[in-house]
Amino acid sequence: MPGYISEGIRYFRVASAHKEMVEADPQNAFVCVVFSAMYMESIANEVIFHEQLMMRQYEEVLGSEILSIDMDIYNEMRSFVDKLHIILGHYSVSEYENDREFIEMSHLMAIRGFLAHLKPIEQIPTGEPERRICRAALNYLHCNKRIIDDPYGRGVFWTDVLMNRDVAEWAVETVVNGLNWLFEKTYDGELGNHTLSWHCQLTR
Hints:
With 204 residues, the protein is mostly helical. Helix content is 56%, strand content 0%. The protein contains eight helices and no strands. The chain is globular, with a radius of gyration of 19 Å. The protein starts with 8 loop residues before the first helix and ends with a helix.
């Protein structure tokens, strides 16, 4: 019987391994952030694939089956937050956007996005950045989590403040907490969603 291949857990293992290397090289914190985010997105893709959620949505929009269209239906033009909306909506979950786990996963994805699409920043004459990059996520880590220094001070590069053990641990913990949160939100008896149940066990 055909199945499907799941390789996302490798990303979690990379993130976890590099968390232990931050003291030796603080730049390993970037690896933790990026690979933690990649792992969380791979889980969302697995759930959508397993439940055929994007297929159903596209069929509703187009009014017909789309099996003959050559496109990656659960990856193209969908952000991680959009994918969460699709998954949670499938399980009739509507109240979640104020949950800490949802907020932290959103910030993790935002930081990963700004790192992956890094842009130059202009400075005003006094030395502060003219534009505040990734403001909501960095303010959250600074004001709510207190694990980074002010990323917008004079002469401070926003990426520099991410290079510490606390940020690395936060990235990995955000994935573990988010995974368990998503499993609980979508639990509907028996083992709940098998994909999420499997990943919860692998990350313990």
